[in-house]
Design brief:
Elements lengths: L16 H13 L4 E2 L1 H8 L8 H8 L9 E4 H18 L2 H8 L1 H10 L9 E8 L2 E8 L5 H8 L2 E2 L3 H4 L4 H22 L8 E5 L9 H13 L3 E5 L4 E4 L2 E4 L2 E2 L2 E4 L12 H8 L4 E3 L2 H8 L2 H6 L2 H6 L4 H10 L3 E3 L5 H6 L4 E5 L9 E2 L5 H9 L2 E5 L4 E4 L7 E11 L2 E10 L12 E8 L11
Parallel strand pairs: 2-20, 6-7, 6-11, 11-12
Antiparallel strand pairs: 1-5, 3-4, 3-18, 8-9, 9-10, 13-16, 14-15, 14-16, 17-18, 18-19, 19-20
Helix pairs in contact: 4-15, 5-6, 7-9
Length: 450
Amino acid sequence: MNHAAPLDPTEPALPAPAARDVTAALNASCYCIGLDQAALKAAMRSDPATVDVFQLIEERCPNLFSSRPVFVGQAHIDRMARLVGTVEAVLAMPAVRSAILGGEAAGGAMLRNVQHTRSVFLGYDFHLRGEEIGLIEINTNAGGAMLNALLARAQRACCAEVEQMLPGTDLSLQFEQAIVAMFRQEWQLAGRSAPLRTIAIVDQQPESQYLYPEFLLFQRLFEQAGLRAFITDPASLQVIDGRLMLGEVVIDLAYNRLTDFALADPSSQALHTAWTDDLAVVTPHPFAHALYANKRNLALLTDPVRLAALGVAPAQVAILLDGIPHTEIVQAAHAERLWSQRRQLFFKPASGFGSRAAYRGDKITTRVWKDILAGDYVAQKLVAPGERSIGEDSGQQLKFDVRSYVYDGHSQWLAARLYQGQTTNFRTPGGGFAPVYRVPSLSAGCGCAS
């Protein structure tokens, strides 16, 4: 589901009213399509290597997959792709990188350790509401890609009109092939000439992680591609004789799923050394997090004065301001103004992840406000998420965001997450990952509703 066709950055491309109305109507009232549990089980059990994964998901992650898809208009998809391309182009500018990293003195060592790799699985997370799109954050180890590829193969359509919107099995398989190719490209971009042979999927106590089933799916995918793949805690890795080792196995590439983004924890020492000394390819890596995922960077990307001073073109600035909610670094000097405006703001820790310690402004107390002022926070203009009705009888409305999995400036796949509460949580009955059904500009909607 590659939506990265070249777009003219000078044309804003707002959604056509008819397409917008059809998309809203489908999200509000289409209940006749969704997840085919039998097809999902068949897809999970089609390979003996993952025969137990479906059972593991049922036992540990009962709300991992939503029962309903999310409909997104093609015009919104085009705007998201245009914004992703613009962000990537701006963050590639030397002046912008220097501003983010604090200049050569602070960022020189990190820049030297880039290995020229792109970093796999950037996750651009969007809120979509009416004509508005809002890039709320960028993640550097975005999870769920393999799970969503699998989910796409377990969808059923209720009519010919909806059939055309499904991501489909063929695109899902193509996405999986692109994932393997992406890791091979990271290996080559790091200057390696020998074939890639071994991959370690690295996370703290991986078997206890909520998305551990996905690690098993990645392991299967890599092994089917002829690679030896291991799932490991970072503390099990060692640097021996200039090589990254897992026991007696030399690790060529580490697929880093850690939330220790700087690799500063003692348990990450071997991985950090492998990255800084170029002993193995590490992706995603600390440089990518510093450049993309630190939420302070969103303050720069929504500051037209600073952007212009750094040489960003006016057309690019316009796209950034149109698609990224205004963000500013919380400072005590602005406390009175921010408190008075809090109902229109969302407060996030600058280096946080997974919505931890993030607060809607209208929900915070004076005690929490003191913590925010004392911490390293940003304030972002509130962009309401979209809504999806999941039950005709219950009338239950869930919020959703849309994640674009991005590599090398291109959107590889779109997925949605349905939830209740302030943030995504994978704890909501009926919520979880949901496939994105693309609504063409001239869609007739759902044939079952006519």
